[in-house]
């Protein structure tokens, strides 16, 4: 997902009853009137909240009995120590992560994070678990109480020409103010704040931020070892700037293989055509971002670099065989997973080699459960990924033109997604998940597994101290950018 969100705006409505109840923080009865503008956050300059959508969420669940004490969130610390204990859910003396949600190796999430997350999720009712797996657009969340109303797991910052939603000009101080206002709605545990900051062709943070080189510029450095070292340095510095303004997830780097830039919709967003070289630079970027405390994301699984069609607008087909996929497009994703990447984003394509010839891979169990996590399918070898699977934006045409928000969300979860990015109507998506659990369409254990994974990353994100705004656009960072460009 790269295009600035401009077409679809969803009305913001608020369910009553159990929607607002949570063991962590239960709003008062006076909050049940609707999603409203909040005084602590400036309204988005380009994305006003419209009237309620006709796509209404499903029946309100019966509220769970709240616990008498609210569990506190893990405190942010300056070292790498993980939380060693977690609050017990109501009526239970112990809590542990589900057996089918192992700790992602090598990444930012620890076993203690998973245990703490499992306890927090088990203390939630279905409504709050449903909110925990949704990442809404800033066009829907900024200037409203959507984060607290639904218990969102995250918000992605969007905008146009560097002007992030809720800001006048997208300066570091303004972006930091927007993220701080969003976090005020989740005082017990910070939500994930994400953005698309690939640099080069795709970047949201522009005005006052360092202009680091994009993938094609870094790939122009002829020596692979030098290119990887420069990529890691640039990503680490970029990660520090993102953390300084409150961003904890970057939907980068792009791990797509591009055989021919001139005929690819990805083009210069890719590190190139050589699978092993692309993998080396992707891994370097992942390490750089995550060393700065920003969870990295490789995209667009299972690989869309050879496609000329724009997946924002249509549903194209990946025609490679499993042998070709194993030796080509899969290589950067597999090495990023082995390096501990926190998230893998799924693209919206068909891939007949794995039996995906009707639904997009973002809604396909074959792609998400069999191929991404294992045991593989049709000769395509699995990646054995145990971190967060995140959909590309659900407002993109291959999904939004086929399914309502209420249906797309639960179907994506059932297929294996953990984090639902930018549903057209986040309230309807939330209601659809709750309804699907209630009528048996969605296994509650699958929702729990997804919520645990997302919550564990939220916990892990609290361990990185926030740098001062003086790192943003600093002379030291400009020197890193200049050195990388001059090497190419």
TrEMBL record:
Domain Glycoside hydrolase family 3 N-terminal: 144-456
Start-end of Low complexity biased regions: 47-101
Cleavable signal peptide: 1-25
Pfam families: Glyco_hydro_3
Catalytic activity entry: Hydrolysis of terminal non-reducing N-acetyl-D-hexosamine residues in N-acetyl-beta-D-hexosaminides
Keywords from the UniProt entry: Glycosidase, Hydrolase, Signal
Enzyme class: hydrolase
Coiled coil: none
Similarity comment text for this entry: Belongs to the glycosyl hydrolase 3 family.
Stated name of the protein: beta-N-acetylhexosaminidase
Provenance organism: Nakamurella flavida
